[in-house]
Amino acid sequence: MVAAPVGAATVPDKGLRPNSLGLLSNMAIGLSSTAPAYSLAATLGGVVAHVHGKAPAMFVVAFVPMLLVALAYKELAADTPDAGTTFTWGSRAFGPWIGWMGGWGLAVSAIICLANVAEISATYLLRFVGLSDLADDRLAVVGFGCVLIVAMTWVSYRGIVVSERMQNVLMAIQFAVLAVAAGAALWAVYSGRAGAQAVRPTWDWLDPTGLSASQIAAAVILCIFLYWGWDACLAVGEETRDSSSTPGRAAVLATVVLMGTYVLVAVAVQAYSGFGQTGLGLGNTDNHDDVLTVLGRPVGGAVLAGLLVLTVALSALASTQSTVLPTARGTLAMAIYRAVPERFARVHPRYLTPSFGTVVMGASALAFYLTLALLSRNTLEDSISSLGLAVAFYYAITAFACAWYFRRTVRRSLRNLVLRLICPVLGGAAMIWAFVQSAADMIAPDYGQTVIGGVGGVFVIGIGMLVLGVPLMIACAVTRPAFFRGRTLPRASAPEDA
C-alpha cells in the first residue's frame, strides 16, 4: 500500500479495522497501557524518597503538563486521526527529520517499558501462585518474562477486538482493587486502628513549595513514567468510532482518572505507612521497590495482600500487551508514508492488525529484555528510570507540533488561542525542562544503580537509546528519499478557518 501526498485532515487507509472501539474501550487501552497498579508499586517509593511527604503534590504537578499535552493530542487527532500520532503530526508541522525522531522516541519508550513490565508480571504471577522460590530465581523469571512478551504479542497480533476485551477486564480489576486498598487504609487511619506508625493526611502533602529544582525534576520524571501510556488511545484512533473526537476525549479523560487515582493511593499509603525508618515506614528503603504489596497484609490481611500481588501482576501484563498496540501501529504509519521499510505496512488479511510491525515490536522488546537481564538486574532497573527521557522527548515534539501546525488559526477564537497555542506551548516547555534537568542530574555516577564509562547508567541508557535513532534515520533517508524530501508526507499547516 502506498500513500499519496495528503492534504490537511486527509489520512490514507491503512487496512485496519474501523469503528471497533467506543469511548470506554478506547480509554481502557490508554489506562491499561499506563499500568497504574504496577506504576504505583514501582515508583511511589522513589517519588517519596525524592520529596518525602509531597508525593501527592508531585502527582498533581506532573498531571498539569500531561493534561496540557493531552489537549494538544486532542486537537491534532481531531484534525488528523492518524495511527502514526507523533510521527505523523511532527512530520506535518516540522518536517520529516523531527517527525521521524518523534516516532523513534515512541518506539524506544515502548521497548524499554515492555522489558520491565514483563519482568514484573513474571515475578508477581509466580508469587501469587505460591512459587516464591522461582520468583527469586533469575533464570526462571527471565524465562517466564520472555514467554509473557511472546504471549501478549500474539494477543495483539490476533486483533483489536480481542485486545480490547482483555484490556476491559484487566483495567476493571486494577481500579477496583486499588480503590478498595486505599479506602481500607484511610478507614484504618481515621478510625485509629492503623498503628503507631500512621499519620493523618495534611494539606501540606499537596503543596509543592519548598523543594529544589532537582528534587522536583527527579520526581516529575518518575511521574511522567506513571502517567505515560494514555496516548495509546490516539494510536488506535483509526479503529475507534468517531475517530476525529472520541480518541482525544478518551486521552483527556484518562489523564484525569489517573491523577485522581494516584493522589488517592499516595495519600492512603503515606497516611497508613508513615515516614519512619523501620517497619512499614516509607523512610525504610526496603519498602521503596513495592509499597503497595508491603501495605496489603497489614491493611487487609492475606486476602488483600494476595489481591494486590495479583493486581500488580495483571497491571504489568496488561501494559505488556497494550504497549505493543500503539508502537506497531506507529511503524505501520511510518511504512505507509515510506519512512521505514515497506514490510512494516503489512496488515493481516483476517485479523486486520499490523502483522509484521507487531512481531518486530515483540521481538525487539524480547531482545532488549534479554540483553539487559543478562547484563544485570540493576541495569534493567536503571532502564526504567531512563524511560521518562524518551517520553518527555516525544511528548514535547507533539505539543510544539500542535502549536505550530495550528498557528494560523489561533486568532479566530479564544478557544483556539488557549487550546492550540497556550496549552501546547506550556506543556511542551514543561517536558523540555523535565528532560534537560533530569538528563543533567542523571549524568552523575551516583544516580541510579549502575555506572557506564564513569557516567550514570540511567543517562547512558536513556540518551543512548534516543541517539541510536540518528544512524537508523540516516539509513532510512538514504534508502527511502521520497519521505525525507517531503513527497509522501509533506509539511502543512491548518488553514485559518480550521
From TrEMBL:
<dbReference type="GO" id="GO:0022857">
    <property type="term" value="F:transmembrane transporter activity"/>
</dbReference>
<dbReference type="GO" id="GO:0005886">
    <property type="term" value="C:plasma membrane"/>
</dbReference>
<feature type="transmembrane region" description="Helical">
    <location>
        <begin position="55"/>
        <end position="73"/>
    </location>
</feature>
<dbReference type="InterPro" id="IPR050367">
    <property type="entry name" value="APC_superfamily"/>
</dbReference>
<feature type="transmembrane region" description="Helical">
    <location>
        <begin position="23"/>
        <end position="49"/>
    </location>
</feature>
<feature type="transmembrane region" description="Helical">
    <location>
        <begin position="169"/>
        <end position="190"/>
    </location>
</feature>
<feature type="transmembrane region" description="Helical">
    <location>
        <begin position="456"/>
        <end position="478"/>
    </location>
</feature>
<feature type="transmembrane region" description="Helical">
    <location>
        <begin position="210"/>
        <end position="230"/>
    </location>
</feature>
<feature type="transmembrane region" description="Helical">
    <location>
        <begin position="418"/>
        <end position="436"/>
    </location>
</feature>
<keyword id="KW-1133">Transmembrane helix</keyword>
<keyword id="KW-1003">Cell membrane</keyword>
<feature type="transmembrane region" description="Helical">
    <location>
        <begin position="295"/>
        <end position="319"/>
    </location>
</feature>
<dbReference type="InterPro" id="IPR002293">
    <property type="entry name" value="AA/rel_permease1"/>
</dbReference>
<keyword id="KW-0812">Transmembrane</keyword>
<feature type="transmembrane region" description="Helical">
    <location>
        <begin position="251"/>
        <end position="275"/>
    </location>
</feature>
<feature type="transmembrane region" description="Helical">
    <location>
        <begin position="351"/>
        <end position="372"/>
    </location>
</feature>
<protein>
    <submittedName>
        <fullName>Amino acid transporter</fullName>
    </submittedName>
</protein>
<keyword id="KW-0472">Membrane</keyword>
<feature type="transmembrane region" description="Helical">
    <location>
        <begin position="138"/>
        <end position="157"/>
    </location>
</feature>
<dbReference type="Pfam" id="PF13520">
    <property type="entry name" value="AA_permease_2"/>
</dbReference>
<feature type="transmembrane region" description="Helical">
    <location>
        <begin position="94"/>
        <end position="118"/>
    </location>
</feature>
<feature type="transmembrane region" description="Helical">
    <location>
        <begin position="384"/>
        <end position="406"/>
    </location>
</feature>
